[in-house]
Amino acid sequence: MNASVKVLLRGSSLLAALIVLHPTVFASVDDAQSFALQAAEPYVKEGFQVREDYWGGDLGSGEKKAVRQQLFKGNEYWFWLGTEVERAKISVHIYDSDGKLAEEPDGWQKGHFAAAHVIPKTTGSYFVIVNIEESPEERTHWALVYGFR
Amino acid sequence: MIPFPKYLKLSAIAASGLILCAQGAQVPQHIDIKQLSKTVEDVVVPLPNEIFGALNKLGAVNWKEHVRSDKGTNFTERPRIALLLGTVIADGFIAVQAEDAPTVKEIGQRVLTLAKGIGVGNSITPHAKAIIEAADKRNWDGVRQELDRTQNSVQQAMNEVHDEKLSQLVSLGGWLRGTEVLTSVVSKHFSADGAELLHQPDLLSYFQTRLQAMPEFNVPIIREIENALGQVKPLIDVGKARIPPESVKKINEITTRLGGGITTRD
After folding, report:
1. Contact call for residues A81 and A114 (beta carbons, < 8 A)
2. Residue A47 gets which letter from DSSP?
3. Could you read off the pLDDT of A26-70 as tens digits, one per residue?
C-alpha cells in the first residue's frame, strides 16, 4: 500500500472515531462562554457593557467555585453564568467581603443559564460563587461573564 | 380559640417564614470567606471606564483636561511596550469620555503600532480599524467596546504564546493610568464617595504578586512600580475607614510619577 493511501485510511478511521464520540468530548469553555453571552444579550439593550474578559473552567456536579471581583459603588453589575450541558442546573450568587449575600432579588436560574444582579453598597472586593448544582456529565464546563452600567 | 383575623395574620407570618426559610436554604445569607481561599479564581482587572463611569455619576468631570495624545517614546523592550500599551488603551477610554474623536483615532493607530512592536499586531488590526470607524461616527459605546476587545485580543494573543506576564503588564499599565486620572479628579473636587473608588486592596495585592513573579524583567520601571505599589497599599487598604484627601493626593503623586516613567525613556 502506498504511503498516501495509508495516510488517507488512517485519517478516515480517525474521522470515524471522532464522529462516534459523544459531542461533549469536543465541548469547551468557549462553548460555555457563548451561552453566558447569550444570557447577557438582552441586557446590552438596557445599556450594560459586557466585558470581553471572562472566567471559565470545569466542575463536577455539586462543586462550587469562587471568583473574586472588584466592584465599584455607583455602578450596577450583572453576572451571567452559562454551560453547554443543557440538562445541567447551575447557579450564581454574590457575596460581599464579609461573606454576606449582596445581590438584588431579581437574579435568576433557568437550567443551564443563571444570572445575579448587584448594586454595590461599597467599593471593594466581592465574591461570585458559581455552582454546578446538578449535571449528567462528570465534568461540566462553565463560563462567567459580567456587564456593568 | 384564635380569632379568624389573628389566625390569618399568624398564617401569613408562618407562610412568609416558610418562604424565607426556603430561600435561605437555597441561597445562604452568609458564607465563610476563609473557607473559599483554596477555590478562589484570579480577579478580572476592571477596565478604566468601569471606574470612570462610577466617577461620572458623582458629578460632572472635565475629561478634556485629562486627554493625552502624545505619541510617547518608542521602546524595544517588550515589558516596556506592554506597560505602555496598557496606558495607551486607558488613554483611549479617557478620550472617549471626553468625546474627542481625533485623539481616539490617533490612539487607535498608536495601539496598532505598539501591538506590532510586541508581535501581536495581526490580532489588533481589525480592532484598530473598528475604533477609527466608530470614532468617525462618534459611536462612543462602539469605541468603548472595541477598546475592551483590543485589550482582550492583545492579552489572548500573548497568553497563546505563553507571554502571560506581558499580558499582566498591559492590565497593570491600564490600571495605573486609570488610578492616576481617578486620583487627579478626586483631588481637585474631593468627596468621600470619590475617594472610596480607590478602595481596591485585593487588586493591588494581585498586581504585587504578579510583579514579584517577574524577576527576569530587568527593567528599572518594573521594580519602581513594585516599590510604589508597596507605598500605595497602606493608603488604600483602610478596611471600613474612609480614604482621606491627603492619601488621594499622595497616590496621585505616585501614579503620576510612574506614568511619566512608563511613557518616557529612563
Report:
1. yes
2. T
3. 568 889 999 999 999 999 999 999 999 899 999 999 999 999 999
Bridge partner list, A146: A79
Exposure on the CB side of residue B191, measured as CA atoms within 13 A:
14
Whether residue A14 has pLDDT greater than 60: no
Q: Which are the contacts of B228, defined by CB distance < 8 A and separation ≥ 6?
A: B254, B255, B257, B258
Comparing A9-23, A85-99, B223-237, which segment has the lowest mean pLDDT? A9-23
Interface probe, candidates A70, A71, A122, chain B, greatest B C-beta count within 10 A: A70
Tell me if A52 and B148 make a contact (CB, 8 A cut-off).
yes
Return mean pLDDT, chain A.
Answer: 86
Measured in angstroms, the CA of B86 and the nearest CA of chain A are apart by: 15
Q: What percent of chain B has pLDDT over 90?
A: 72
Confidence tier at A3 by pLDDT (50, 70, 90): very low
pLDDT value at B38 more than 70: no
Contact at CB, A146 and B44, closer than 8 angstroms: yes
What's the first-to-final CA gap in chain B, in angstroms?
Answer: 88
Q: Which of B134, B155, B184 is nearest to B86 (CA)?
A: B155
- Is residue B12's pLDDT more than 50? no
In A, which residues are within 8 Å of B185 by CB distance? none
Q: Which domains does chain A have, with CATH numbers?
A: 27-148 (2.60.120.380)
Asked if A110 and A90 count as a contact pair (C-beta separation under 8 A), the reply is no
Distance of CA B188 to the CA centre of its chain: 21
Rounded Cα distance, A145 and A39, in Å: 9
Nearest CA in chain B to A108: B27
Q: Per-residue b/e over B48-59, b at no fewer than 16 CB within 10 Å? A: bbbbbbbbeebe
| Contact across the interface for A72 and B43, Cβ inside 8 Å | no
CB B61 within 8 A of CB B207: no
The alpha carbons of chain A give a radius of gyration, in whole angstroms, of: 19
pLDDT in tens, B66-108: 999 776 778 999 999 999 999 999 999 999 999 999 999 999 9
Concatenate the DSSP letters of all residues of B13-27 into one string: HHHHHHHHHHHHHHS
Q: How far from B257 is each of B52, B98, B201, B244, B260, CA to CA, in Å? A: 21, 23, 20, 20, 5
